[in-house]
Amino acid sequence: MTGSILISGGGVVATTRPTRPSWAQRAARAGAVARLRGLRSGAVVLRCALGEERLGDPAGRLGTIELCVHDPATWTALAFGGDVGAGEAYVAGQWSCSDLTSLMRLFVADRDVLLGLHDTVWSWPRRLLLRLGQFLRRNDHRGSRANIRDHYDLGDDLFAHFLDPSMTYSSAFYEHAGQSLADAQQAKLRRLCRLVELQPGERLLEIGSGWGSLARCAAGEFGARVTTTTISQNQHAHAQRVLRDAGLGERVAVLQRDYRELDGEYDKLLSCEMIEAVGAAYLPTFLRVCADRLRPGGLLGLQAITIQHRHYPAALRAVDYIRRHVFPGSFIPSVEVIAAAAAKHTDLRLEYVEDFGQHYATTLQQWRERVQQAPEPFLQRGGEALVRAWHYYFAYCEAGFRERHIGVAHLRFRRAGATA
């Protein structure tokens, strides 16, 4: 980093003059600029030590975004690291822009430009190493615990700072404009319970406890007898405490057990945004476990982040910033991939799908704004770099939902057999 930076609602802005680039950095910049000229859905005004220029189409629907390169090392980070290198350079304070989410949306909309920046001959060694790293983080029993620990056990205080009071870390469902995040999260929890037609006294298994909000809703509002499991130490301890304090200790059993170690038979099964963490190789295993734990005719409800099916193969091969630095070992399935795996490996039948991806965009926006407006806990933990890291993560994901490259869906499956 070449100078100090300021965190503001509009992003990060430079306070010192950027340094002059080396020959290699100039060459990397020239290649990036040539590709950025191909932007069609908007334009960037690029400012760096070599001057200012407008790249792309200012008449595009996403308008014009100011992009400021403070450190010319940004160009070599992009050339050699692609998408991951760009994110790492942002976290390091090497570049900033007037509207990070809009910039991300621009690259999602003009995907060919993004791929041109990412898939260069210079970046292939790093891309190969990243793919090897993801292979080594496979979601076997040991790998799953490590992957979950690296994200969810960072400290409950950080998550509590931007989540609603129920500590629900998944997309909310907004029933009307202006609804609060807390109310929208409760609406989502109730929709999940209704998705599987949950009735008083029924045995519900939840795979992926989070911090206990869905189990609390299912037992407290719907009268179910709940068994919920997580492999996160922090979440297990928090969920136990929350459910005990709510007087639901006798109705809810909180386990710290891998989904592959579960037994018993249940009337209904719910899993909220946990399927992404099982990894593509273990998707059939996860669905088989779900089917095996359900009684004949039982219902499985999933909340899953999904990707357009035509982009699934490429996304599965790539390791982007999120897979490298936020959710190691994860993948985003398409609805078609989930349905095909269920049909091939289980007796589960898909009977309902509802996508509400724009609700996730709003959820992420609210999380991002909470961190921006009061970043103190993040500053105390990791300084300005940690604030930028979370800002980048939220903006990156929000852009994908806003451009409908990814979505989030409620899916209901019914196991074959008697329904009574």
In short:
The chain is an alpha/beta fold and about 425 residues long. The chain contains 16 helices and 13 strands.
Please give a structural write-up:
- Helix 1 crosses helix 2 and helix 3 crosses helix 4.
- The chain is elongated and about 70 Å long.
- The N terminus is likely disordered.
- It has 2 domains: 129 residues, no CATH class; 275 residues, 3-Layer(aba) Sandwich (Rossmann fold).
- The strands form 3 sheets. A 7-stranded mixed sheet has the order 9-8-7-10-11-13-12, sandwiched between helices.
- The chain has 420 residues and is α/β, with parallel strands linked by helices.
- Gross morphology is elongated
Strand order of the largest sheet: 9-8-7-10-11-13-12
The CATH topology of the largest domain is given as: Rossmann fold
Low-confidence stretches: 1-16
Give the termini separation: 65 Å
Computed CA radius of gyration, to the nearest angstrom: 22 Å
Blueprint of the fold:
Blueprint: E1 5-8, E2 11-14, H1 23-36, E3 43-48, E4 51-56, E5 64-69, H2 73-91, E6 95-97, H3 100-109, H4 111-118, H5 124-136, H6 141-152, H7 156-162, H8 181-195, E7 203-207, H9 213-220, E8 225-229, H10 233-245, E9 252-255, E10 266-272, H11 283-293, E11 294-307, H12 312-317, H13 321-325, H14 335-345, E12 348-355, H15 357-373, H16 376-402, E13 406-415
Parallel strand pairs: 3-5, 7-8, 7-10, 8-9, 10-11
Antiparallel strand pairs: 1-2, 3-4, 5-6, 11-13, 12-13
